[in-house]
Design brief:
single chain, alpha+beta, MetI-like fold, 12 helices, 8 strands, 68% helix, cell membrane, MetI-like_sf, membrane, transmembrane transporter activity
């Protein structure tokens, strides 16, 4: 009997100790919070579904198999009116990804140039960069989109009075028309040569950086890589019998036929997004460079490094550790701001899927949820890639 009472005391003591354990209590409270949130979400979803059923509104994703019946001006994959709403989703997704990726590239290049120019010792260059930043970052993005679309691109001449920007390049109110490369069967060897050139360039870059760490000797990585990327495909082009020719746009009737056409909606959106976001990136770059101790620059110059080498090899690598986190936020903003494309008719995901498809099907919950999921996935992917790069350039303490 005595042993039984002692055992009960031990069990009761262990239970009380467990209840006072901070880790155990934290887990319990988190599980209770998750259960409460799940119950609330379950109740809300059931209420919404019941209300829709009472009104005779169908739910589910079956509508994605129905014929769309409307055309889209810009498609990166095959599409016509007979395709399904599911196809329109992917068309809008690719168009959103296209303007986001191109916008990020252009905004990054322009932002770094303006940010470095903002720190120039030349008074005129520095003032012009400052005027650019203060002008474009203080004008609403939607107004800038309207400016480029209505005031600039819509003021261009009609197709018959198109502006010639070079051989096979025409600009008019309908868009920009370029020569289109047409690949014949032997062109696959050009692709193989390009892949080989990329692999060799990456390998050479790794080797050159390793040699620089060991001996301090710099190698012309950029020039060698550029020569490989141009020389290998060009050599393959001639050896394989020139299996690529250009298809030039030709004026037929009231518009150009053939070649590659860039819609004015895409051009206006890219210009506005790139210029607007670049003004913020420029300030991020300027603050990142200013955060690097001036003693680093003085030490590099004392060693005889030219100013451009000092900036590229000493200042920028250290500034990147400060630049990348806020730069990621600007990339995310640019991706989300691309949804303003609907204002000028660019066929992005919001316009094609959350706009036309929603109006024709009435599947508001499913369509809005899918659209939100796409922007969430694009943002998370961008954050993941930037965090991986940030980890690569971060200072490693030993």
């Amino acid at each position: 009997m005595r042993n039984f009472e002692l055992g009960c005391d031990v069990l009761s003591g262990s239970k009380s100790n467990l209840l006072y354990n901070p880790t155990f209590r934290a887990v319990i409270f988190q599980l209770l919070a998750v259960a409460a949130i799940g119950m609330v979400a379950y109740t809300l979803i059931n209420n919404v579904l019941d209300n829709l059923a009472q009104r005779g509104i169908a739910t589910g994703l079956d509508f994605l198999q129905q014929e769309a019946g409307f055309g889209i001006g810009l498609t990166l994959i095959e599409y016509d009116e007979t395709h399904t709403y599911g196809r329109t989703f992917f068309v809008g997704l690719l168009n959103t990804a296209l303007v986001s990726v191109l916008g990020i590239l252009l905004a990054t290049i322009l932002g770094f140039i303006i940010g470095i120019a903002r720190l120039s010792s030349n008074w005129l260059v520095s003032r012009l960069a400052a005027v650019y930043i203060e002008t474009f970052r203080n004008i609403p993005l939607l107004l800038q989109i309207f400016f480029w679309y209505f005031a600039v691109l819509q003021a261009l001449p009609a197709p018959r009075q198109s502006l010639s920007l070079g051989e096979g390049i025409w600009l008019n109110v309908r868009g920009l028309y370029l020569a289109k490369p047409v690949f014949e069967p032997g062109a696959i060897w050009i692709g193989v040569a390009t892949i080989v050139a990329i692999v060799i360039s990456l390998g050479y870059g790794i080797y050159a950086k390793r040699q620089q760490r060991l001996s301090g000797k710099q190698s012309p990585i950029f020039l060698v890589s550029l020569g490989l990327l141009i020389g290998f495909p060009l050599l393959s082009f001639f050896l394989s019998g020139q299996p690529v020719h250009l298809e030039y746009p030709e004026l037929k009737g009231f518009n150009f036929q053939g070649g590659i056409s860039i819609l004015p909606e895409l051009g206006a959106l890219l210009l506005a997004l790139s210029i607007y976001t670049a003004s913020f990136i420029a300030e991020i770059v300027r603050s990142g460079i200013n955060a690097v101790s001036h003693g680093q620059t003085e030490a590099a110059l004392a060693l005889g490094l030219p100013a451009n080498h000092t900036l590229r090899l000493v200042v920028i690598p250290q500034a990147l550790r400060i630049i990348i986190p806020p730069l990621t936020s600007q990339y995310l903003n640019l991706t989300k701001n691309s949804s303003l494309a609907m204002a000028i008719g660019y066929p992005d995901l919001v316009s094609v899927f959350a706009g036309t498809t929603l109006n024709q099907t009435g599947q508001a919950i499913e369509i809005i949820a899918m659209t939100m999921g796409v922007y969430l996935a694009l943002s998370l992917l961008t954050s993941l890639l930037m965090n991986l790069y940030n980890k690569k350039v971060a200072l490693v303490e030993r």
